[in-house]
Design a protein that fits this description.
With about 325 residues, the chain is α/β, with parallel strands linked by helices. The protein has helices at about 5-15, 20-25, 45-60, 80-90, 105-110, 150-165, 180-190, 205-215, 230-235, 235-245, 255-260, 270-285, 310-315, 320-325, and strands at about 30-40, 70-75, 95-100, 120, 140-145, 170-175, 200, 225, 250-255, 265-270, 295-300, 300-305, 330. The chain folds into two domains: about 5-145 and about 270-300, Rossmann fold; about 150-270 and about 300-330, 3-Layer(aba) Sandwich (Rossmann fold).
Length: about 325
């Protein structure tokens, strides 16, 4: 991800860099300001429910909008330039804390500020990305919640082989512009040979790249697909689901919303729960705690969701043992 030029930051921020310290010195009963940088667009079906859960969590701690809380929300729509622009805007508003959703938003925010507290959700490797010094003691101005270890990507591949054992050539949709995309692909490569699978990466930068990649992959009876976690995968979810159906590919997804929309199977954490947890950290920071001392927490609940209707359309028989493990079966 490109680093912003120093003059661009100065021009957009002005003297805002010193403001957060002043704001946090207000009296306890003063109105607090929370920024939110969402990675998806405002009309994305996942965006508003996640923001609502976060707001509800804050309300449980007594933080009410237009009473003792002002909230500034920006929507990145999966576009790096827009996300960087919004990161600068939010910091310039001098919030007490910013909620950042996904790796695509955290990096740009930390390029702009190392003083405004940032609480992140859905960031798989905050240490490797340089966002925190360690999970136990982050040490800087950022902390939050991580959805899974990169090793989970290997489980996605194993899951595909269980539900579609004929799969020998597997396309992997991932975002190569972020560390998460590269590392998830690497975790699958580590086990691919032992599973008798050859992997083919497909970029997710825009709709054309996805369509070209899927067409070039030349799906057949021995093929499958893994969709790894990224903001862009969520942005292009409907397109991915449509192409998977067109090419009749058995596919495993990183979150259940793909399965709700017609995908075959997903395995991952409850994302809404991460937004609820984020409200607890925002509350603690608003009450005076430092993000440097709040440990990064991993997801504790994973969900296996299977769409039997899709399995039937693909001519797949889901193993009874896999059905027994499922948290939810869509029929």
């Amino acid at each position: 991800m490109p680093v912003m030029k120093r003059r661009e930051v100065i021009a957009l921020l002005g003297g805002a860099a010193a403001w957060p310290l002043v704001v946090r010195a207000q009296q306890p009963n003063s109105v607090r300001r929370v920024g939110v940088l969402m990675s998806v667009a405002a009309d994305h079906p996942d965006g508003q429910p996640r923001l609502t859960v976060f707001k509800q969590g804050l309300q449980q701690f007594g933080w009410i909008e237009r009473r003792n809380l002002e909230m500034d929300v920006r929507w990145g729509a999966g576009e790096p330039d827009r996300i960087r622009k919004h990161a600068v805007e939010l910091v310039a508003l001098a919030p007490n804390v910013i909620l950042a959703t996904g790796s695509a938003t955290v990096g740009p925010l930390l390029q702009v500020t190392r003083t405004v507290p940032v609480v992140f959700v859905y960031v798989p490797d905050p240490v490797g990305a340089g966002y925190v010094s360690s999970l136990v003691r982050p040490g800087g101005n950022a902390t939050g919640f991580t959805p899974f270890e990169y090793g989970t990507a290997a489980k996605w591949l194993e899951l595909l082989k269980q539900i579609a054992p004929a799969s020998k050539r597997v396309a992997v949709i991932r975002d190569p512009a972020i560390a998460t995309g590269l590392s998830q692909f690497g975790a699958m490569q580590a086990v691919a040979a032992s599973l008798g699978v050859v992997l083919s990466p497909i970029g997710v930068r825009d709709a054309d790249e996805i369509e070209r990649g899927m067409s070039a992959f030349a799906p057949g009876p021995d093929t499958g697909l893994i969709v790894t976690g990224s903001a862009l995968a969520s942005v292009h979810r409907d397109l991915i689901i449509k192409l998977v159906a067109r090419h009749k590919l058995p596919a495993v997804y990183f979150e259940r919303h793909f399965v709700d929309a017609g995908g075959l199977v997903s395995y991952g954490p409850n994302i809404l729960e991460q937004y609820h947890q984020a409200a607890t950290y925002v509350d603690r920071i608003l009450k005076g705690e430092s993000p440097a001392d709040l440990p990064v927490q991993a997801a504790t609940k994973y969900e296996l969701v299977i769409n039997l209707k899709t399995a039937k359309a693909l001519g797949l028989e889901v193993p009874p043992a896999l059905l027994a493990r499922a948290d939810e079966v869509i029929e």
